[in-house]
Write a structure and sequence with these properties.
The chain is flat and about 50 Å long. Helices cover 44% and strands 21% of the residues. By secondary structure, the protein is of the alpha+beta class. It has a 3-stranded antiparallel beta sheet.
Length: 85
């Protein structure tokens, strides 16, 4: 029988500041705005998403951060080379 193993992600990624640090490592340039009863997530000047609550925003950013945090370091280096850092 074949056994599958999955890498584990850092549980701290559920926190917005930790997730944002991972996402910004990939040049998202995230910022959060609170306006008109909603929470807005921006990447630079681009509006990425609107949420009703901060908790919804945290779930979204945690999911993206988990996915990106599991990439091998060679993929991170390729992004840096592509962006020209």
């Amino acid at each position: 029988m074949m056994e599958l193993t999955f890498p584990s992600a850092d549980p701290a990624l559920i926190r917005l500041d930790t997730a944002a640090a991972v996402l910004n490592r990939f040049y998202w340039n995230l910022s959060v705005e609170h306006a008109k009863g909603e929470v807005r997530l921006r990447g630079g000047e681009l509006l990425i998403a609107r949420f009703d609550t901060v908790e919804e925003l945290e779930i979204f950013t945690a999911g993206m951060a988990v996915a990106l945090s599991l990439l091998p370091e060679t993929a991170v280096e390729a992004v840096d080379q592509f962006v020209g850092e």
